[in-house]
Amino acid sequence: VKQSSQPLKGKLAFIAGAGRGIGRAAALALAERGARIHAVARTESDLASLLEELPGSGHSILTADLSTEAGCETLLDSMRQHRFADIVVANLNVRSQYRRITDEQFSFRGEALADGVAYLTKIAPETLAHQKQSRFGRWIGIGSIVASMGGPGQGLYSAQKKVLESFLITLAVEHGRDGITANLIEPGFIDTHGTRSRYPKERFDKLGSMNLLGRPGKAEEVAHLIASLADPLAGYITGCVIPVCGGTNLSWPLVTVQKQEKPDA
Ligand SMILES: NC(=O)c1ccc[n+]([C@@H]2O[C@H](COP(=O)([O-])OP(=O)(O)OC[C@H]3O[C@@H](n4cnc5c(N)ncnc54)[C@H](OP(=O)(O)O)[C@@H]3O)[C@@H](O)[C@H]2O)c1
Fold first, then answer.
1. In this structure, which residue's CA is closest to atom 16 in ligand 1?
2. Any idea what the Cα angle at residue 14 is, between residues 138 and 95, rounded to 5°?
3. What angle do CA 42, 220, 194 make, to 5 degrees?
4. Atom of ligand 1 at shortest distance to CA of 143?
5. Is 75 helix (H, G, I), strand (E, B) or coil?
6. CB atoms closer than 10 angstroms to residue 224
7. At a CB cut-off of 8 Å and minimum separation 6, what does 172 contact?
8. Mind listing the pLDDT tens digit of every residue in the chain (265 residues)?
9. Who is most buried in 26, 64, 158, 207, counting CB within 10 A?
10. Dihedral of the CA atoms 229, 28, 189, 86 (nearest 10)?
């Protein structure tokens, strides 16, 4: 099959959390391949600068907080006014007020688990109807390798990402015959504004080196897979959970030990 340099021409990609980091890199990678971008985040200046950088035309930005009911309504309205997306990039990390479950909060509200998919459930019925009609749909979620490996203090975050995984696998099962695919990417430690601002330099460097490559991933490296999964030729890849983590999933504690030992003579 001859591959076009603009395989996504005519497709509209909605990206949740597109102002910075992985979402921004995904917007650029998808636009590079010809897609029109509908970029959503809370900070207008980030979206405005992205809009200037995006190649091609017909892109739009929306300032909305997708962790709120009002923000989800705004998103749905904007999609109804323009068009529903052919490609959905579910890149949002909805920060719950319960970042850590303490003893007092142990009876925390279970709904927090679904915070990361609430905006998706809002847009899913009409988006799927649109995608069924054109017999093309791509749902690409951004989970985390932590959800599969476990991590101290990451219980709620991991559980939210597993809810996203279940949501996507269900879409894959229910809509494969409509030409719709759904997959989850699990990034490892990626160098983004989010990780730079969350961790002091020393901790950032340590976390970024705990993988087979000894460096943090780049947002563009995750975006490369997002764009590949969006491609029409990726139509046979569905229901997958794909790590982009520099091999963090492959027994990294042993790699650390190995580095301290003298190589065999
Ligand atoms: N970086 C990593 O090491 C890593 C590893 C594993 C998984 N991930 C996952 O990858 C995704 C992106 O991470 P990142 O590091 O690229 O994040 P980031 O640099 O912090 O960027 C997040 C983007 O999402 C937007 N956003 C956040 N909350 C929002 C809300 N409630 N409504 C609308 N937009 C919102 C942010 O803009 P505003 O704040 O302006 O809204 C920003 O544009 C997340 O789902 C994260 O869990 C990241």
1. 21
2. 105
3. 40
4. 7
5. helix
6. 15
7. 139, 180, 181, 182, 183, 238, 239
8. 677 889 999 999 999 999 999 999 999 999 999 999 999 999 999 999 999 999 999 999 999 999 999 999 999 999 999 999 999 999 999 876 555 666 655 556 677 888 899 999 999 999 999 999 999 999 999 999 999 998 888 888 999 999 999 999 999 999 999 999 999 999 999 999 999 999 999 999 999 999 999 999 999 999 999 999 999 999 999 999 999 999 998 865 666 656 666 655 4
9. 26
10. -30
Count of residues making up the chain: 265
The pTM score is: 0.94
Q: Two tokens at 44? A: 């207008």
Indicate which residues carry an active-site annotation.
157
Q: Please list every protein residue whose CB sits less than 6 Å from any atom of ligand 1.
A: 17, 19-23, 40-43, 46, 65-67, 91-94, 142, 144, 187, 189-190, 192-195
Q: Give the sign of the dihedral formed by CA 256, CA 257, CA 259, CA 264.
A: negative
CA dist 227 and 215 (Å) reads 23
- Cα 185–Cα 167–Cα 133 angle in degrees, nearest 5: 95
